[in-house]
From TrEMBL:
The chain crosses the membrane at residues 42-63, 93-117, 137-164, 215-235, 247-264. It holds the Pfam family BPD_transp_1. Residues 89-268 form the ABC transmembrane type-1 domain. It is a multi-pass membrane protein. This is Proline/glycine betaine ABC transporter permease. Its main location: membrane. Belongs to the binding-protein-dependent transport system permease family. InterPro entries: MetI-like (IPR000515), MetI-like_sf (IPR035906). CDD domains: TM_PBP2 (cd06261). Keywords: Cell membrane, Membrane, Transmembrane, Transmembrane helix, Transport. It is found in: Cell membrane; Membrane. The lineage of its organism: Bacteria, Bacillati, Actinomycetota, Actinomycetes, Micrococcales.
């Protein structure tokens, strides 16, 4: 009985080896696509002078929310430039944006599926629980085996870790739509697809956006951890500060992450919250 041991780790390694043998071509295409998307966005953010990006991002904040957000954005981004973390911050922003877009593209359809089928919801729920409670650093190991060192394994681990609230909030938002409104659409002969597009999704949008907001926040927290596998950017700076026990560098990178998180949080928080303020 003392020798009892479930070889779960061996099963995982066998599964990973099988996936590498069978899907190596698919993984190569995914790696190239994600790398190209990230490099293109980072090039777009780092090529113009830094003050141009400050004007663009603060103008975006003013247009979407208010002049107060625009002013806060200017102050925050000037601080990032002042602590010499501009390029790293833009690389982090690019990584977060690409990871969030991919996570949202995966999460919203899964949330719609879960909302339309109790069977799908019951199957997805334990999977989502697993994805949300697994220590995030564990995701880096298989991602590293499959996609090698660099930005891509960090991005893949970020997507897996961050997409859960997107699925849950999408399901919650669609299930929360007033049943009488849906029945009115059915009474007028609307198809299920039309009811989804023109009734359920618009009414559920504030909840879905709250889920996307959570995806962004989790992506930012995971991006820093992804610095351990060579993702670079602000996460790489935090890892370097740990290796050198450089508190100054760690706080400069940390405050840059906080500023980016506050900007992305305010700009993607539901409109209703802004009106309440």
């Amino acid at each position: 009985m003392n020798d009892f041991r479930i070889p779960f780790g061996d099963w995982v390694e066998v599964g990973l080896s099988w996936m590498l043998d069978v899907f190596s071509g698919v993984f190569s295409v995914i790696r190239s696509g994600m790398l190209s998307a990230n490099d293109s966005l980072v090039w777009l953010l780092t090529t113009p002078p830094w003050w141009v990006i400050v004007i663009v991002l603060s103008g975006l904040g003013w247009w979407i929310k208010s002049w107060k957000l625009a002013l806060g954005t200017v102050i925050g981004l000037v601080i990032i430039q002042g602590v010499d973390q501009w390029d790293n911050a833009m690389q982090t922003l690019g990584l977060v944006v690409v990871a969030t877009l991919i996570a949202a593209l995966l999460a919203i359809p899964l949330g719609i599926l879960a909302a339309s089928s109790h069977t799908a919801s019951n199957i997805l729920r334990p999977v989502l629980d697993f994805m949300q409670t697994m220590p995030p650093m564990v995701y880096l190991i298989p991602a590293l085996v499959i996609f090698r060192v660099g930005v891509v394994p960090g991005m893949v681990a970020t997507i897996i870790f961050a997409m859960v609230p997107g699925v849950r909030f999408t399901e919650l938002g669609i299930r929360g739509v007033d049943r009488e409104v849906v029945e009115a659409g059915e009474a007028f002969g609307a198809s299920r697809g039309r009811i989804l597009r023109q009734i359920q999704l618009p009414l559920a949008m504030p909840t879905i956006m709250a889920g996307i907001n959570q995806v962004i926040m989790l992506s930012l927290s995971m991006v820093v951890i992804a610095g351990m596998v060579g993702a670079g950017a602000l996460g790489g700076q935090v890892v370097a500060s740990l290796n050198r026990i450089d508190a100054g560098l760690g706080f400069e990178a940390g405050i840059s992450v906080v500023i980016l998180a506050m900007y992305l949080d305010r700009i993607t928080s539901p409109k209703k919250k802004a009106n309440q303020r």
